[in-house]
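Quick note —
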Amino acid sequence: MSILWLRVALGCYAIGLIYALVALNRTSDLFSRIAIHAASLGMVFHFVSLAEAVLLSGQITLASVHNSESLLAFLIMTVFMIVYFIYQTTSPGIVVFPVVFLLTFIAATGQQPFLLTSSGLRTGWLFAHIALIFTGYAALVLSFGASLLYLIQESSLKSKNPGRIFTRLPALQVIDEIGYRSLLLGFPFMTLGLIAGSDTSIFLTLKYFFQC
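Predicted structure written out below.
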């Protein structure tokens, strides 16, 4: 059943993908609002899919390739929504929506839960490792998108002939702030995730050593 909710979320994200493609030629406040509402609804179904996958299996299923892609897509959308509510701009969505759609599409077309048979791996440290690392990835993806928009808009402004899309982008300072703050958010999560992963590795190594 979780795969069904994920595919419904994929349909909602498809509207965001269309927005990203249309925004390359022209922009519309109405379409932007529709894309945001569709993405928000998609996040609800996406969360239900992730939660149901864990509850039905009774184990952490986020370690499979497809579930990892699904989790990463959800976290990217979460960070994007936080940025949207703070800055009231959907501009990073030009980069974020295609990435989220692609990750969700891959996850929705071949979801195969990987059940962890080791009791050591089922500890909270592994979940913390995955969640923290992927949150860091999500923030860095958004930072990349903002940085890309910054470079493109700066080049367009210097040419003194900006395209229609660039006339609707926020100021360079705002884009730079989004990228900078996302970067500041990403690296601490990556660091904490690596620490959690190291603890898990040490735990399993010691357990194997004393069992021998």
